[in-house]
């Protein structure tokens, strides 16, 4: 089995991605490292622990990490995910607590224990990963594959006109990661936009008779309603698409390799991912950008993850 480490900020779509990972037979989840992002760290850690419990995966260690971006404070996305990040349904906290080890240190330790084999999937702001890189710049040499959910490759942002939330929340961290890794998979917001899920199909999957589907139905209700009002009949689950590409890259229909950098200074464009589509810079291609993924496979992965017991 391939060892899988997930860096996350749950978050309703993070939760769906985690359920997909819990349901996968070919990967062995060695930990969840958690950062602030969608909501504050106390909530994202509490949510990660709860989701493990609901899925019967109390064996997966949860490591708390960065409580804020590296340099500048950033507004969270509580208006999308609920003030607690899980739809404000008032769930009872899991009985377990996070591990004592900091997420950045856990990333480094697990990268040594699984050197060359680790699949690292980053579903939130890249603060934990950037901290780990600053502590040990040789980290990329020990990572088998890195998959990042972030950016908007043609600058159609979801948080500013040009920037996507995960990169915008901590642009310096994204810059550090994009510079340090010679190659990573990028699943950006614009790929997510063309892989929307029909609400009426999602509603059907959520009616499955399983504790996972029941819990997910509750915590996602608020954000699905928010999305239906603004974006119409399709729901966009960013982290779920990233997890599909991480677990089943054979489902990718089109991937383009290009140099990607992060704008740190722009008056209007801070946090924007800048893709050198036409090879102006001479920079090496660092990102394998997912353009299209098999819709049927994506939907089946979600449906099965929700129905699993
Ligand atoms: C990303 O931002 C967060 O709100 C989601 O969890 C996802 O990781 C989408 O831009
Ligand atoms: Ca996320």
Your description of this structure?
GO terms for molecular function: hydrolase activity. With 309 residues, the protein is an alpha/beta fold. It is built from 13 helices and twelve strands. The strands form three sheets. It has an eight-stranded mixed β-sheet, with helices on both faces. Strands 7-8 form a two-stranded antiparallel ribbon. Helix 1 runs antiparallel to helix 11 and helix 1 packs across helix 13. The longest helix is centred in the last third of the chain and has 21 residues. The two termini are 21 Å apart. The site of beta-D-ribofuranose has 16 residues, from helix 1, helix 7 and helix 12.
Which helices and strands occur, and which strands form pairs?
Elements: E1 2-8, H1 12-22, E2 27-34, H2 41-54, E3 62-64, H3 78-81, H4 103-113, E4 118-122, H5 127-135, H6 139-142, E5 143-149, H7 165-169, H8 171-180, E6 184-187, H9 189-193, E7 197-198, H10 199-206, H11 211-231, E8 234-235, H12 238-247, E9 252-258, E10 260-262, E11 273-275, E12 287-293, H13 295-307
Helix pairs in contact: 1-11, 1-12, 1-13, 4-5, 5-8, 10-11
Short characterization:
The protein has 13 helices and 12 strands.
Order of helices and strands: EHEHEHHEHHEHHEHEHHEHEEEEH
Instruction: Give the CA-based shape.
Output: globular
Low-confidence spans: pLDDT under 50, at least 5 residues? Answer: none
**What gap, in angstroms, lies between the N and C termini?**
21 Å
Radius of gyration: 18 Å
Strand content: 15-25%
Number of discrete helical segments:
13
Sheet with the most strands: spatial strand order: 3-2-1-4-5-6-12-9
What does the oligomeric state look like here?
single chain
Structural class: alpha/beta
What is the number of beta strands?
12
- Report the mean per-residue pLDDT as an integer: 98
Distinct ligands:
beta-D-ribofuranose, calcium ion
Instruction: Please outline the major beta sheet.
Output: 8 strands, mixed
Helix content: 40-55%
Keywords: Hydrolase
Domain Inosine/uridine-preferring nucleoside hydrolase: 4-299
Protein name: Nucleoside hydrolase
InterPro entries: Inosine/uridine_hydrolase_dom, IUN_hydrolase, Ribo_hydro-like
């Amino acid at each position: 089995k391939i060892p899988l480490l997930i860096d996350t900020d749950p978050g309703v779509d993070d939760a769906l991605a985690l359920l997909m990972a819990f349901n996968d037979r070919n990967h062995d989840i060695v930990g969840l490292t958690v950062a602030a992002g969608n909501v504050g760290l106390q909530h994202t850690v509490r949510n990660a622990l709860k989701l493990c419990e609901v899925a019967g995966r109390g064996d997966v260690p949860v490591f708390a990490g960065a409580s804020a971006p590296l340099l500048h404070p950033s507004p969270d996305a509580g208006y999308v995910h609920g003030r607690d990040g899980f739809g404000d349904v008032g769930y009872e906290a899991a009985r377990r607590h996070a591990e004592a080890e900091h997420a950045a240190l856990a990333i480094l330790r697990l990268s040594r224990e699984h050197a060359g084999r680790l699949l690292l999937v980053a579903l939130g702001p890249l603060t934990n990963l950037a901290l780990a890189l600053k502590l040990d710049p040789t980290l990329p040499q020990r990572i088998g594959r890195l998959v990042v959910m972030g950016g908007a490759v043609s600058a159609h942002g979801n948080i500013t006109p040009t920037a996507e939330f995960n990169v915008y929340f901590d642009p310096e961290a994204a810059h550090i990661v994009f510079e340090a890794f010679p190659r990573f998979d990028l699943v950006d917001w614009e790929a997510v936009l063309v892989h929307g899920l029909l609400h009426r199909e999602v509603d059907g999957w959520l009616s499955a008779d399983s504790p996972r589907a029941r819990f997910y139905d509750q915590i996602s209700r608020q954000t699905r309603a928010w999305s239906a009002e603004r974006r119409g009949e399709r729901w966009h689950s960013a982290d779920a698409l990233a997890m599909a590409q991480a677990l089943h890259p054979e489902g990718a229909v089109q991937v383009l390799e290009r140099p990607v950098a992060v704008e740190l200074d722009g008056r209007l464009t801070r946090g924007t991912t800048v893709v050198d589509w036409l090879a102006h810079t001479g920079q090496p291609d660092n990102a394998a950008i997912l353009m299209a993924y098999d819709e049927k496979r994506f939907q089946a992965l979600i449906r099965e993850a929700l129905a699993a017991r």
